[in-house]
Amino acid sequence: MQFGIFTVGDVTPDPTTGRTPTERERIKAMVAIALKAEEVGLDVFATGEHHNPPFVPSSPTTLLGYIAARTQKLVLSTSTTLITTNDPVKIAEDYAMLQHLADGRVDLMMGRGNTGPVYPWFGQDIREGINLAIENYALLRRLWREDVVDWEGKFRTPLQGFTSTPRPLDGVPPFVWHGSIRSPEIAEQAAYYGDGFFHNNIFWPADHTKRMVEFYRKRYAHYGHGTPEQAIVGLGGQVFMRKNSQDAVREFRPYFDNAPVYGHGPSLEDFTEQTPLTVGSPQQVIEKTLSFREYAGDYQRQLFLMDHAGLPLKTVLEQLDMLGEEVVPVLREEFAKGRPADVPEAPTHQLLLADAKKEAVDAEKEVVA
């Protein structure tokens, strides 16, 4: 399994001090958090994509390219690439470029986002959100897999004899996850192509997540990519830790109560009971996270949201130390126990390249035969 963190890049006042970081401070903080993630032994850093205040990550490739130059092992991902409002041609070229710069340490999570006004800002109609996601991704796959593309669709001008540059590193496109909280159409899309399915898993109860993941697994098998258990699943999560659980609750409560998304809604106690949010000791985080396997099966990627709601950078870095030193080593060991041998590893460039070479050899053998 891969373990990592994802950020939404919100610029939120610290409710305990009233101070709001500048955009520059928040951007620099995300870089520091990514560097700390590699330092403590995590596998993945993922950034969202937003084009409206109070969020700053409007250019994921710029942020990830900078982080790539300062890291060695960290897989650099998006936690949302807006497949609906970004031009597929630009996505193909931007992320292939990043893939070369990062020596293959790149993958993407396609999503529609949760901000309605972004559609008209980029010349699109939110009522076409699902159709945009389906058509744009179909074109993106062709741009990465075909050297010359002729294409015509509903939402952009036609392409004739077009080649996106640079070509994917080693001829292997970045691995794609499809992220969705509530849309079975997106789970279906992931299953159809044999891509990964990522469930955000921070707002919804376990039974909802179970239904979405089971639907994706069944459709993955339906399309002939393998057994349901071999489908590629990722989950989000949300934690805040202190050595003593009472201290964690007391410290996190004002941030929870004033968070932009769920503040002034359910109580912290209700939210932790009804969703995957864990506020407590490292052992409580371990136990709650291990329970995800009960309804999602053996899965490949676990990402945690840790730097939101105005939490100071110092606090987030302390959280990452605990995550890397006390939580993830135990999770790696426990998730490995009883894991069937035919459940695939999390896809990486090296694994995808090896698979591509094997397919080429097998195809050559068939031609000779």
Describe, in plain words, how this protein is organized in 3D.
By secondary structure, this protein is α/β, with parallel strands linked by helices. The chain has helices spanning 23-39, 60-68, 88-101, 118-121, 129-145, 184-193, 206-222, 245-257, 268-274, 282-290, 292-296, 313-336, 349-368; strands at 2-7, 44-47, 75-78, 81-82, 107-111, 149-151, 159-162, 175-179, 196-199, 233-235, 239-241, 278-280, 301-305. The strands form 3 sheets. It has a 9-stranded parallel sheet with strand order 3-2-1-13-10-9-8-5-4, with helices on one face. Strand 2, helix 2 and strand 3 (75-78) form a beta-alpha-beta unit. Helix 1 (23-39) runs parallel beside helix 12, helix 2 (60-68) packs parallel to helix 3 (88-101) and helix 3 packs across helix 5 (129-145).
